[in-house]
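Thread: quick sanity check before group meeting

JM: Hey all, I'm pulling together slides for Thursday and realized we never actually wrote out the predicted structure for the chain we discussed last week. Dropping the sequence here so it's in one place. If anyone has concerns about the input, flag it before I start.
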Amino acid sequence: MSAVHAGAVGDPPRQKVTSYQKALAYAQCMRDHGLPRFPDPDSHGIFAVSPHEIGAANGAQFRRADKACRHLLPGSQPMTAAQQRQATDQALRFVACMRSHGVPAFPDPIVTAQGIGFRLGRSGPRPNTPVFQAAQRACKKLMPGGPP
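JM (edit): ok, ran it. Output follows.
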């Protein structure tokens, strides 16, 4: 990924760094910080990370890597209370959609000032199954941080 700088007169226009490019940089940073199996995001910049992909014993390593790399994620600036409410509403619509499209165990969202997450674990839905992927395609318009 090339750096984007404010240009002087005569420089080419600044390029917009997409959410996908930011998420890809985050994935590379996570791998550079000790998680070699951390996956790339999908084409919308969304991660479907399971404990198997990062290794169940890597919880502390994951937290250290995430702390070092979180600034690279899209939306890494803290959300206001109003933004959190809006994001929660959107995330709950996404959860309802996923559940109605064949993933009844899709977890409730985890909302913090830093963003929204979904804990997908051993007992929850598997992101690599055809049912999960079909539900994700059907619900992508509702995905927090997803396409408009």
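AS: nice. Strands lie at 110-112, 115-117. Confidence is low (pLDDT under 50) at residues 1-15.
JM: adding both to the slides.
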